[in-house]
Structure prediction request, 231 residues.
Amino acid sequence: METEAPLGDANPSGSPSRAADGWLAGTRTSYDTVADSYSDYTREALAKQPYLLAALALFAELVHAIDGGPVADVGCGPGHVTAHLHNLGVEMFGIDLSPAMIDLARREHPDLRFEVGSMTDLQLADASIAALLAFWSLIHIPDYAVPTVFGHFHRVMRPGGPLMLGFHVGDESRLKTQGYGGHPMKVYVHRRQPDQVAAWLRDAGFTVKAQMILDLDQSVPGAILFAYRQP
Ligand SMILES: C[S@@+](CC[C@H](N)C(=O)[O-])C[C@H]1O[C@@H](n2cnc3c(N)ncnc32)[C@H](O)[C@@H]1O
Prediction:
């Protein structure tokens, strides 16, 4: 069962404040707690999502078109998407905030590299990667920290490299207190309008090329944005 509570009026921006920097620790602990059940939940799911698979195939083509590698999957979770792109011939590695997720990803995909790290403080050298994917991980970053995260993405990518983002569409932020089989969580989930995310990307030095909206008839659609790091 998933349990999410809307944030109260005391925080009208819907984001945890800078003072409440415990949000990062809360996210880490939450995904450490649910790592196994999240992995069970996602293991078979990707194969049943043709639109996501098409977006990933397009991303792989964009990387091949620039003969690019390596490519970072930031917020990779159990590494199933990392492995899928690897199987499409992309030189992938994964980074995640949660040590338990990284342990799991290493166990499930021993031929791939996975490291613990945060997109808020990305420990990669400047211009060291060809492309970057962040699939449903930016949803845990409050608004005030998104420009910092996109600044890191821009810094670590080489000019002309493709970026793909997946996130929930909406205007609300919620505190999720349970998930993936009723496990306790304390993680903020931020829904966003694609135009807002695109504006942040442009401010950080990306050119936004395309967007896909998934599950338009669901209460919470998904969005995928494709962008390029400007030269
Ligand atoms: C909803 S899961 C998505 C996992 C995977 N990308 C997928 O598509 O299934 C969110 C993941 O983002 C990770 N995450 C959250 N905040 C992060 C951060 N600041 N840096 C890196 N990873 C983060 C979590 O630990 C979790 O594994």
